Amino acid sequence: MAYKYKHVIMAGIDGAGVFFHKAKTPLIRSMFEKGAGADPALTVFPTESAQCWCTMLTGIMPEEHGLTMDNIGEIEYKGKAEHPDIFALIRKAHPEAKLASFAHWSPINTGIVDDGIGVVKDTGKDDYLMERACAYVKAELPEFLFIHFDSVDDHGHGYGYGSEKYLAQLDLVDGYTARVFEAAAEAGIADDTLFIVTTDHGGINGSHGGWSDEEKYVFFVMTGKTVRKCAIPEMNVREIPAIIAYALGIPGVADADGKDPGRLFTE
Ligand SMILES: [Zn+2]
Fold first, then answer.
1. d(CA 186, ligand 1 centre) in Å
2. Does the N terminus or the C terminus of the chain have fewer Cβ atoms within 10 A?
3. Which domain holds residue 245?
4. Domain count, the chain
5. Which CATH number characterizes residue 57's domain?
6. Residue 1 is assigned to a structural domain of this protein
7. CA of 168 to the centre of ligand 1 (A)
8. pLDDT digits over 138-176, tens only?
9. In 3D, which of 19, 33, 31 has the Cα closest to residue 201?
């Protein structure tokens, strides 16, 4: 019987690619030292936020879910009944679970995360969401909290991916993520929490959407008391929902890539 985590906290740093290699990012680096990490992981095509985040939260590919930058928030993604998003999967298994999605890029909340199932949603700038998430973690001890930071991607568009200002922002958001994780420690739940940091795509020449290495390579890293310290080979971001479901002990969630999430845990 696999160990079940009581909590999962996932931070998504939009547009971060694998640029942490050029930044300080003490949290991300320490997680790679302690936990299971894919460096790089592969995201999906096209490397746009709508397509990537929907895959990362549902496990289905862009050609299947159909969300694009033009329609996200206006239509439901295709295959929603057969492929609920990770929040809906958790809700179905755990009707009382506290679930929250705090997303700077609000179409994640309006276009992907199911409505009407009691997911606490909020949107705002990264610093606001960081404070909001810290308070929420301490007050509610959520089973799953997703926090999406967008300022790094903004800096990529504005100043260039990998630019000095972009890397400084990545360091700042690494610190915001650390604050949210520290809130779990302050709340006394860190020992029962799976911590994840990942990103949807990178960027090149001030934009993204294509299939260059700078755009398609991303990272995924997680820590937790039963996480196997390892380098995860050939990971695609579509595997993320199955990993979260496995950690929480929710049965019947097949890995979209056909892999066994159990390989990433010691028990
Ligand atoms: Zn994005």
1. 30
2. N
3. 7-264
4. 1
5. 3.40.720.10
6. no
7. 18
8. 999 999 999 999 999 999 999 999 999 999 999 999 999
9. 19
